[in-house]
UniProtKB/TrEMBL annotation:
Residues 11-136 form the VOC domain. Transmembrane segments: none annotated. This is VOC domain-containing protein. Signal peptide: none annotated. PANTHER family: BLR2520 PROTEIN (PTHR36503:SF1). Pfam families: Glyoxalase. It comes from the Bacteria. InterPro entries: Glyas_Bleomycin-R_OHBP_Dase, Glyas_Fos-R_dOase_dom, VOC_core.
């Protein structure tokens, strides 16, 4: 591209998770309180409003085929990514972790003080996608539920 022509505006709009049982995953994310949108898609694909990027659920094998990646073997270890649920307080971290576990999540790591001055713990969804639940210095959760980063 020429230096005179601006490039596209970068944005992250959707995070799609491959899931083994879309019905169970829809129920799990619904139970966490994410609002499902475009329900007319049935169980072909599910979209949830997260207050930021959309969270989409898509059958694992179909997502692998769409991304031109092998479906097997499916990873049973860390996949090199996590999702995050930022909180406003340490108490909220504890509440969210307990809530998620109560809705069927697996507790991966109890909440603890971090070496950077935060407080975090981890849970996994039914397909093992890890979520960090965290309050961290310099990251504020506003009344709009959106994350606001310090300059």
């Amino acid at each position: 591209m020429s230096k005179d022509v601006p490039g596209p505006v970068p944005r992250l709009t959707v995070i799609t998770l491959g899931v083994s049982d879309i019905s169970a995953s829809i129920a799990f994310y619904d139970a966490l309180g994410f609002s499902r949108r475009l329900k007319a898609t049935g169980e072909a694909v599910a979209f949830f409003d997260t207050g930021g990027p959309v969270l989409a659920l898509f059958p694992w094998d179909q997502l692998a085929a769409d991304a031109v990646s092998p479906d097997k073997p499916r990873p049973t270890t860390f996949r090199g990514m996590t999702l995050a649920w930022n909180c406003a307080t340490r108490e909220e971290v504890d509440t969210v972790l307990a809530f998620a576990v109560g809705k069927g999540a697996a507790l991966l790591k109890p909440a603890h003080e971090t070496d950077y001055g935060g407080y975090s713990g981890y849970f996994a969804d039914p397909d093992g996608h890890p979520w960090e639940v965290v309050v961290a210095p310099g990251i504020e959760v506003g009344e709009d539920r959106r994350v606001h980063l310090a300059e």
